[in-house]
Amino acid sequence: MYQTNNRMLWLNMDRHQWGDIHLIISLIFILLLIVHIAMHWAFVSNMTRKFLKQPTIRIVTIIAFTSISLSLLLLPFFITPATITNSDKKGHQALNLSHSNSIDKISEINTPSRADRVNNGIHKNKQHWPVKGSMTLNEVVEQNSMPLNYLIKKLHMPKHVNTNEKLGRLKRKYGFTMSEIEKIIGEFQKSNE
Q1: Per residue in 125-156, pLDDT tens?
Q2: In 3D, which of 34, 10, 4 has the Cα closest to residue 22?
Q3: Integer distance in angstroms from the first to the last C-alpha of the chain?
Q4: Which of 12, 95, 102, 149 gets the highest tally of CB atoms within 10 A of its CB?
Q5: Residue 167 burial (CB < 10 Å; 0-12/13-18/19+)?
C-alpha cells in the first residue's frame, strides 16, 4: 500500500491538493478571527483595563503580546529551512544550510565512505555516482558511462527488462543489492582504465 509509486487519493484528491485546501481554510479562519476581534474590540479593551489596572503594565503587556503575535505570524515568511542532500554514497553527505539574505553554504561535511575505506572494487581515482533505489537502469549506465547490456548481464536479469523501472522495484523482483551494482560499476571502471 505504501510503496514509492503509489498515489493515494481521497475524494479524488492527493495530499498536495488537500494541503492547498487546508491552507485556504486556515487563511479564512484567520480572517474570521481578525473580524471577530475587531467586532468585539470594546470588550477586549474593557477586559484589558479591568485585569491590568496599572497603565504601565497594560502598555508593556500589549506591546509584548503584539510583538509575539506579529513575529509568529511573519516569521515563516522570513526563514528558509535547511536542506540536507546526499552528495555521495554511503556516508558522503553535504550539509547545505541556507538562510534568507545571509549565508548560502555554512558547512560541507565529507566523510570517507565504507567503499573508499575497504576499497571494495570502486576505483578511488574515478568519479563514481551514487546508486539509489529511485534511479532507473538507464540513469545508472548514463551516469557511469557503461553499456546497458553489460549491467543487465552482470545482474543476471532478462534482456527484455524494463530499463525505465526504478531500481528499488527491480531489486525486489530480481534479488540484487545496490552494493552489487556499485561493485559492477567499479569493476567496469577498472577494466576500462
Answers
A1: 455 567 888 888 888 888 888 898 988 999 98
A2: 10
A3: 45
A4: 95
A5: buried
CA-wise closest residue to 177 among 138, 131, 135: 131
Minimal CA–CA distance to 187: which of 119, 92, 112, 117? 119
Q: Say if residues 123 and 189 touch (Cβ distance below 8 Å).
A: yes
Distance CA 73, CA 156 (A): 57
Looking at residue 94, what DSSP letter applies?
E
CA 107 to chain centre: 18
| Cα–Cα dist 190/193, whole Å | 6
User: For residue 64, which of 75, 76, 72 has the smallest C-alpha distance?
Assistant: 72
Residues 54-83: what's their mean pLDDT?
87
What nine digits make up the cell of 100?
534568507
137: closest CA among 169, 166, 175, 172?
Answer: 166
Residue 94 backbone dihedrals phi, psi, to 5 degrees: -110, 125
Q: How many CA atoms lie within 13 A of 72 on its CB side?
A: 6
